[in-house]
């Protein structure tokens, strides 16, 4: 059998009457619930803070009319003309119309959004 490449560590003196780390049943009944509560508490707190700090990640609208409780656009069909291209990625500088910003958004995020195109049927 090969010997280890380093010398063994010297043994440390232990206090009289002890032979290492021992935990009684009574101590375990306290330690285990406290440890479980600490783990669960840490998980819940970290989840709470990660949710609140990443809240804007879940939002689609990052900049448009943020003072309004709801962003709504309405158009009459007669005013659309032969074709209209509407943004669905919420990144257009000409919102609600598409300006092609979805291409950059898709490249950066791996998303696949594109515009809504409304056009009259070809006669
Ligand atoms: S810019 Fe948003 S869909 Fe084209």
Automatic annotation (TrEMBL):
Keywords recorded for this protein, A-Z: 2Fe-2S, Autophagy, Endoplasmic reticulum, Iron, Iron-sulfur, Membrane, Metal-binding, Mitochondrion, Mitochondrion outer membrane, Transmembrane, Transmembrane helix
Q: Write down the required cofactor(s).
A: [2Fe-2S] cluster
Subunit structure comment from the entry: Homodimer.
Q: Which GO terms describe its molecular function?
A: 2 iron, 2 sulfur cluster binding; metal ion binding
| Described function | Regulator of autophagy that contributes to antagonize becn1-mediated cellular autophagy at the endoplasmic reticulum. Participates in the interaction of bcl2 with becn1 and is required for bcl2-mediated depression of endoplasmic reticulum Ca(2+) stores during autophagy.
Q: Which family does it belong to?
A: Belongs to the CISD protein family. CISD2 subfamily.
Q: Which GO terms describe its cellular component?
A: endoplasmic reticulum membrane; mitochondrial outer membrane
Record-linked InterPro entries: CISD1/2, FeS-contain_CDGSH-typ, MitoNEET_CISD
Query: Can you supply a Gene Ontology BP term from the record?
Result: autophagy
Species name: Alosa alosa
The Iron-binding zinc finger CDGSH type domain covers which part of the protein? Answer: 70-108
Q: How does it sit in the membrane?
A: Single-pass membrane protein
The protein in question is named Iron-binding zinc finger CDGSH type domain-containing protein
Subcellular location as annotated: Endoplasmic reticulum membrane; Mitochondrion outer membrane
- Pfam families named among the record's database cross-references: zf-CDGSH
| Annotated TM spans | 28-49
Coiled-coil spans are none
């Amino acid at each position: 059998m090969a010997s280890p490449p380093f010398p063994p560590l010297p043994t440390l003196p232990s206090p009289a009457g002890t032979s290492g780390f021992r935990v009684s049943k009574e101590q375990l009944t306290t330690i285990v619930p406290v440890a479980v509560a600490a783990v669960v508490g840490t998980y819940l707190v970290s989840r709470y803070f990660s949710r609140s700090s990443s809240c804007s990640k879940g939002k689609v609208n990052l900049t448009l009319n943020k003072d309004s409780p709801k962003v709504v656009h309405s158009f009459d069909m007669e005013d659309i003309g032969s074709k209209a291209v509407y943004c669905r990625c919420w990144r257009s500088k000409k919102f609600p119309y598409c300006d092609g910003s979805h291409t950059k958004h898709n490249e950066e995020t791996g998303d696949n959004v594109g515009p809504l195109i409304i056009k009259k049927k070809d006669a």
